[in-house]
Amino acid sequence: MTPRERVVASLNFQETDRAPRDLGAMRSTGISAFAYPKLVAALGLPPRLPRVHDTGQMLALPDIDVLDALGCDVLTIDGGVTDAFPEPEKWHDFDFGGRLPAQVLNPAAFQVQPDGSILQGGSVMPPSSYVFNADHSGQPLLGLDDELPLMDLKKWKQDLASWQLTDERANQTVDLVRRVKESSDKAIFLADHCGAGIGIGGFNGIGIFPIICKLEPDYVQELHEITIQHAIRNVQLLLPKLEGMVDVIMTTADDWGTQNACIASPKTYEKLFLPYYRRLNDEIHRLLPDVKIFMHNCGAIYDLLDLIIDSGFDIVNPCQWPAGKHGYKDWKDRVRGRASFWGGGVNTQHTLPHESADVVAREVEEVVAYMRKDGGYVFNNIHNLLAEVSPEKVIAMYAAAGRA
C-alpha cells in the first residue's frame, strides 16, 4: 500500500498492511526541537537546523527523510508551512541564546535576556526550560468578587469579520496543498483555516471558561453562534478549491479532560458545544465527502466519546487511555467502527520516560496490535515527544508500531 492508501483505508475501517504512522501532523503529535537533532543523528541522517514551527511548545517540523526513516505516512500543512519539502525562503536562523541553533519564521519575535531567558510576547523560556510559558498559563486570575470576563460580542463579531479568510490567502493555501500533493504519495493533513474556534478552554482559558459555561449559558451560545458562522464562511471559501487534494482536516484542538475526569460535564458539551461543532463538520462533509475530520482533545474524555462522534468528528486525538479508569481496550471498543483514534500508542507519562527502549517497544506492539484491529487507527505517541525522550526510544516506538 502507498502511505496515503494506508491512512485512508484505516480511517475507513479497512484492513491495512500495517498501522499507519504519524510524526508532526499537528501540534500535539510532534517532537521537541531540542530532541530532534539527536533523533536525526541516531537515524544516521545528515545534520540540519530544526525548523521550529510551534515556538510556544518548541516543536520541530520534521524533515521528509526523517519521516521516511520512521515509516511515517502523513504530511502536514500548518501555519502556512509544510514538512513535505524545504521552504528556505520562509525560515531564518535563530539560536535561542546559544541553546539551540535552529530556524524560525520570525526571529524578531524573541528577545534574549541577560540571564539567558528568552521572551516571546507575554511568555518566557528560562535557561532551564524547553518550552515557553506565562504566568497562570496566560489566563486571568480572578478573585471571588471579580466579575466574569465576558467579551463584547458585538466587537467580537466585528473582529472576526476583519479576520475573515480572503481569496488571496485561500489561493496561497491551495497552491501549497497542490505542491505537497504533487510531491508525495503520503496522506495530507490540513490544519489551516478550518478551525471551529470554540472549546472548553477557547475563551478566557480553561480555568475560567467552564465557569462561564455554567453561569452564563446564553452568552456562550451567542458567542459560539458568532464564532461558528465565521468558521463556516472560511470553509465555504477554501474547501471547494481543495477537492481531491486533502485527506484529513483538523477543526478543533481542545482539552476537555483532566488526569481523572472531564473538566465540564457531558451535558455542558451536549448543550453548548455539540450543535456548533456538528454544523461546521456537516458543512465540511458536504463540501468534501471523502475527508475525515480530526479533533484533538486531551485527558480523560472517555465519557464524551459518544458525543464527540455525534458532533460529526471522524478522528479523535489522542487516545489518552492512561487518564481515567478505562484502558486502551475499553477506549477502542467504545468507538470501534464509528470513529478512529490517532495516537495513544504508548503510555507517555510512565512507560516512555521511565522504562527502557525494549519495554517501550513491547508496550507499543501490544497496544497497536489491538488498536488497529478493524481499522480506525493511526499510530503516534499520546502527545508530543518531549526534549528528555531519547532518540533510541523514539526509533524503538516507530519500529514496534510497524511490527504490530
Describe this structure in words.
- The protein is α/β, with parallel strands linked by helices and 404 residues long.
- It has a single domain (3-21, 71-81, 148-403), classed as Alpha-Beta Barrel (TIM Barrel).
- The chain has helices at residues 3-11, 36-42, 64-69, 153-162, 167-183, 209-215, 217-238, 266-272, 274-287, 305-310, 328-335, 351-354, 357-371, 391-403; strands at 31-32, 52-54, 59-60, 74-78, 81-82, 92-94, 102-104, 110-112, 118-120, 123-125, 187-190, 248-254, 292-297, 315-317, 340-342, 377-378.
- An eight-stranded mixed beta sheet has the order 5-4-11-12-13-14-15-16.
- Strand 8 and strand 9 (118-120) form a beta hairpin.
- The longest helix is centred in the middle third of the chain and has 22 residues, at 217-238.
- The protein starts with a helix and ends with a helix.
Summarize the structure.
Helices cover 36% and strands 13% of the residues. It is of the alpha/beta class and 404 residues long. The chain has one domain (3-21, 71-81, 148-403): Alpha-Beta Barrel (TIM Barrel), CATH 3.20.20.
